[in-house]
Amino acid sequence: MLVDTGSTYTWIPRPILERLDIQPEFRQEFQTADGRVVERDMAQTRVRLNGQERFTSVVFGGETDSALLGAYTLEGFSLAADPVNHRLVPVRGLAMVLT
Fold this sequence. Notes:
This protein has 99 residues and is mainly beta. It is built from two helices and eight strands, in the order ββαββββαββ.
């Protein structure tokens, strides 16, 4: 799966989500890199990464779309992309603490 920090959500081709018995729950509009607006089905589902599971939102992509790991899912796992070494690295969450 490719990591795309420019994509808000994780995109998975529809046939893969259907094989996993994940059903669309709602639709949302997206703006593409070339400025078009498209509408796609979405669902909430569990994702497993490195032995950990989190709930995340996934977009039902087209049959020929690449599977993309988006920023929302990365943040849920407290991970960031390291573009120099081509890996995901753990990061601390930020908190606004009033004392």
